[in-house]
Amino acid sequence: RITIIKKTTELDQFWDPAVQMALYVFGHIGNSRRHKIHQNLDMAGWIGVGWSQSNRMPHAAINAEMEYSYLEKFYSSLLSEFKNLTNNSITKEELELAKTTRINDYQNKTYNPKELNGFIQHYYNRNGYNLEKISNMITEINAVTIEEVNAAAKKVFDPNNFVMAI
After folding, report:
1. Residue 159: strand, helix, or coil
2. Which of 32, 43, 125, 143 is the most buried (most CB within 10 A)?
3. Is 45 helix (H, G, I), strand (E, B) or coil?
4. 4/60 Cα distance (integer angstroms)
5. d(CA 156, CA 95)
6. Radius of gyration of the chain (CA)
7. Phi, psi for 52 (deg, rounded to 5)
8. Virtual CA dihedral for 25, 31, 36, 42, nearest 10 degrees?
9. How many of the other CB atoms lie within 10 Å of CB of 165?
10. Beta strands in the chain (DSSP E)
11. CA distance to 7, 63, 64, 69, 140, per residue, from 1 (Å)
12. What is the rounded average pLDDT of the residues 95-119?
């Protein structure tokens, strides 16, 4: 089992929609970059992507579980994709799909009172966001440009700032 953690934003900068869009392109949209890496490994084991939005240590994480014999290929595949992501390779189509997916995630959490309450508590407890700030999240996501998401990808997926220890 492998966990790779990368700091995504400065402390006390809880919300960075461009970083989130870059992370969605890597791991959460249909035919994501993570899925392509997994295909390159003959679908061996599993690979997951997540992040913690926290004013203490915001970070992205890549988790994987696979046979040891796949690790070298996994490492090479990650480095290759990280290099690709830092070369302005995120397309407008990927960005639009990431925006739609993330907005749907938010909207799904506001359809019933229990989900809405948990959603609001999560953002309030983590960073003190009030209802007005939360209601602006979708607007902030939609405002992300292709230049901003590619700049965020350069920061988060910098292959020169990546070490995988087993």
Report:
1. helix
2. 32
3. coil
4. 8
5. 16
6. 16
7. -115, 120
8. 150
9. 5
10. 2-7, 46-52, 59-65
11. 20, 7, 6, 13, 35
12. 82
Averaged confidence pLDDT in the chain: 79
3-state secondary structure of 61: strand
3-class DSSP state of 13: coil
Tokens of 141: 């996501």
The confidence score (pLDDT) of residue 8 equals 67
C-alpha 120/C-alpha 131 separation (Å) is 7
Rounded to the nearest 5°, which phi and psi values hold at 125?
-65, -35
Which among 30, 85, 61, 69 has a CA at the least distance from the CA of 164?
Answer: 61
Per-residue exposure over 64-85, b if at least 16 CB sit within 10 Å of its own CB, e if not: bebeeebbeebeebbeebbebb
Q: Measured on CA atoms in the order 146, 58, 162, 69, is the torsion positive or negative?
A: negative
Out of 33-47, 74-88, 141-155, least confident range: 33-47
